[in-house]
Design brief:
The chain is built from 14 helices and no strands. The protein is mostly helical and 410 residues long. It starts with 8 loop residues before the first helix and ends with a helix.
């Protein structure tokens, strides 16, 4: 099954065209925060970043070719694949954000192919992480002190409550482990069978991809990128300090608009039981909106890597969104496993508890992001503030680029 994070960004976030299409209004006085760009042109800065990421991709490819096929070096091969994915995502993001500086036909084609490759190579790792997360949660829930899953919390209350609030005793449940008992073991075995099968299929698909003509064409294009960036247009020859920041700011604006559409006021409330109750009905719709924000925040983070900028608050917010995605997909996997025909009631009960636990993890990740995003946005605004209140004195001359209605609709 194709996951939202497997899709190219312009498909996953609802946009039909690459982003952006034109060069925003530039700042004549970018301020001291971006003075480290020096006298380099926009093309030189972008090309240097693309060269480094392309070199990292090729290094990972060579390492994979040297280590693949051996059980002893399986971990090395897996790390090589992750390196290729990391570099592919960054190249694609740079080509997307700084599109006005590039040969658009070549950049769009390469970005689309890298998004496809990153998605295919990432599925095996996604299933592995999902299984580890679910089995770890099952172990935590089943090894909880007796009575943890019932109202009173005493050992005696747990023994009594398991007969009334837990699954039927004849299905193999016990008072230990919060009423999960043998159902947790069976649920773990079911999840392991299903996700291991999915992971095996993803591994086979990745191996087929790495041997395909399409992949070799992508690798050849990346090899060319390592020495020749697809730059074009007059903007690439202009000073980087005037050209690159407005494009990076546009990526921030787009992410901020997506965040504004989220129910952050509610998500910032800890132990948000009301929100949790509603997610049982509309969790898929809300999860898709949060995943779109994850993609845009990641795009914004990669865009600022080109400038040499580092925002710890933004990195922490991005990690919270990654946890949100992992928990949401784990909850979906538990829900899908619970719909397996002819499973025991105790197994279905354990999977239901697991699903609820992961939905609580989803809410916890939303709460964390709600607290982290405001510092990230404030840091961005401080970095782009102009000296001596120039923005207030000359509106429109140095103001942030306005996002068009087309951009808002995507």
């Amino acid at each position: 099954m194709v996951q939202p994070h497997d899709l190219p960004l312009n498909a996953a976030d609802g946009g039909g065209e690459p982003y952006p299409k034109t060069l925003p209004e530039v700042r004549e006085d970018p301020g001291e925060a971006l003075s480290d760009l020096g006298e380099a042109t926009a093309g030189e800065v972008l090309a240097d970043y693309l060269h480094r990421q392309a070199t990292g991709f090729l290094r990972g490819l060579r390492l994979h070719e040297e280590s693949a096929g051996s059980a002893e070096s399986a971990a090395v091969a897996a790390e090589a694949v992750r390196t290729m994915r990391r570099c592919a995502r960054r190249v694609g993001a740079a080509l997307r954000v700084y599109r006005p500086l590039t040969d658009t036909a070549r950049a769009d084609q390469l970005g689309s192919e890298l998004a496809w490759l990153s998605g295919v190579l990432g599925r095996e790792r996604a299933y592995e992480v999902r299984l580890e997360r679910l089995l770890g949660a099952l172990h935590r829930l089943s090894s909880a002190p007796a009575g943890a899953a019932v109202a009173d919390g005493s050992a005696a209350g747990s023994a009594a409550g398991s007969a009334t609030t837990g699954p039927p005793a004849q299905c193999g449940s016990s008072s230990s482990g919060g009423g999960l008992g043998i159902g947790a073991a069976r649920a773990g075995a079911l999840l392991e069978r299903q996700l291991t099968l999915a992971r095996t299929r993803a591994h086979s698909a990745a191996l087929q991809t790495l041997g395909s003509a399409r992949f070799h064409a992508v690798a050849d294009a990346v090899a060319v990128l390592a020495s020749e960036a697809p730059l074009a247009g007059e903007a690439a020859a202009r000073p980087a300090v005037h050209v690159l920041p407005p494009l990076a700011e546009l990526a921030h604006r787009r992410a901020a608009e997506a965040v504004d559409a989220l129910p952050l006021t509610r998500a910032r409330q800890s132990y948000n039981g009301e929100a949790f109750a509603h997610t049982l009905v509309v969790d898929g719709e809300l999860d898709a909106a949060w995943n779109q924000v994850r993609l845009l925040v990641r795009l914004r983070r990669y865009a600022h890597e080109v400038l040499g900028a580092c925002d710890p608050a933004l990195t922490a917010a991005s990690r919270a969104l990654d946890r949100h995605r992992d928990a949401a997909e784990a909850a979906s996997a538990a829900s899908a496993a619970a719909r397996t025909p002819r499973i025991a009631p105790a197994t279905a009960y354990a999977l239901g508890v697991l699903h609820a636990d992961q939905r609580h993890e989803v809410e916890a990740a939303r709460f964390s992001f709600g607290r982290l995003w405001r510092p990230a946005a404030s840091a961005q605004q401080a970095q782009q503030a102009r000296p001596a209140g120039a923005d207030q004195q000359a509106p429109g001359a140095g103001a942030a680029p306005v996002v068009s209605s087309t951009e808002r609709g995507r």
